[in-house]
Structures are given as C-alpha cells and as structure tokens.
Amino acid sequence: MNVDNELFAAHPSIDVSVDFNDIDSDELLVRPCDVREGVSPQLGDVLVAGDWGARPAKVQVIEITAAWVRLRLLD
To answer: Where residue 18 sits, what CATH number does that domain have?
Structure first.
C-alpha cells in the first residue's frame, strides 16, 4: 500500500493528497495519482484536500491537464 492509499484509508473524507508546504499563493498543483481512486475531478469541483498531520481544507479544481490538477485553496 502506498502512502496516498494509507492516507485515504485513514482519512475517508479526504479526496486528494496534497503537500501544503508546496502551496503557491492560494494554489496547489497535484498529480492525477494524488486523487482518491474513484474521484474524477472536473473543473469547478470542490474537493477536500489533506495530508498527514494537516487539517483538511476545501479546494476547488481550476485546471486539469494530463500531468497535473491545479487547485485553489478555499479554506
């Protein structure tokens, strides 16, 4: 089991695994593999982002490419 799967198993409310240390202003970039299996982000979707030891935060999908998903921090 990889770290993201362990995170998702331990925190069922989290939709996407993020590293809040990588935040650029109010935006985050994540890889599609950082999204919980079964969640298919679409532009405008509001998801819950989280990481070990960090308070989950609401994020909005603002851009999707084959390589990454750009999220805007709402909380």
So the answer is: 2.40.10
pLDDT in tens, 12-65: 999 999 988 777 688 999 999 999 999 999 999 999 999 888 889 999 999 999
Residue-wise pLDDT for 56-71, tens only, equals: 999 999 999 999 999 9
Q: Rounded to whole angstroms, how far apart are CA atoms 65 and 5?
A: 22
What is the Cα 16 distance to its own chain's centre?
3
* Domain that residue 33 falls in: 3-73
Residue 55 near residue 45, CB atoms below 8 Å: no
Residue 16 host element (H or E): strand 16-17
How far is residue 61's CA from residue 44's CA, in Å, rounded to a whole number? 5
pTM score: 0.87
